[in-house]
Amino acid sequence: MIIKDGVIMAGLQLQMREVLIAANSIWKKHGQELAITSGLDGVHSARSMHYYGYAVDLRTRYFDAITIKIIVIDLQTALGFDYYVLFEGNHIHVHYRATI
């Protein structure tokens, strides 16, 4: 697993560990190393779960469109309803559906 320079992981909530474990396995299945491109850092929408440690962004630039769709489905299936998985054009965003 690669953490992009500048990504802040300190403060990431325990629920996100499940995301990283599942994503790491899925990326390996598709022949790539998982790269985290955002944790608690970056600029996001005002209500973003990133600011609370309940979201991560994952690199997808080395996958084609079909593989990305498969990965989103596989990751959502692995994580279940408590998590939200979305391809946002240049990365996959995953957040825990926390009530804060």
Explain this structure.
- This protein is of the alpha+beta class.
- The chain has one domain: Muramoyl-pentapeptide Carboxypeptidase, domain 2.
- The protein has two helices and five strands; from the N terminus they run E-H-E-E-H-E-E.
- The chain has a five-stranded mixed sheet, with helices on one face.
- Strand 1, helix 1 and strand 2 form a beta-alpha-beta unit.
- Helix 1 runs antiparallel to helix 2.
- The mean pLDDT is 92.
Strand portion: 15-25%
Strand order in the sheet with the most strands: 1-2-3-5-4
Q: Give me the strand/helix succession.
A: EHEEHEE
Mean pLDDT: 92
Number of helices: 2
Number of distinct beta strands = 5
> Class in CATH?
Alpha Beta
Kindly name the structural category: alpha+beta
CATH architecture: 2-Layer Sandwich
Q: Low-confidence stretches at least 5 residues in length (pLDDT < 50)? A: none
Helix content: 25-40%
Could you tell me how far the N terminus lies from the C terminus, measured between alpha carbons in angstroms?
29 Å
CATH topology-level name: Muramoyl-pentapeptide Carboxypeptidase, domain 2
Choose one word for the global shape: globular
Radius of gyration: 12 Å
| Main sheet record | 5 strands, mixed
Q: How many structural domains are formed by the residues?
A: 1
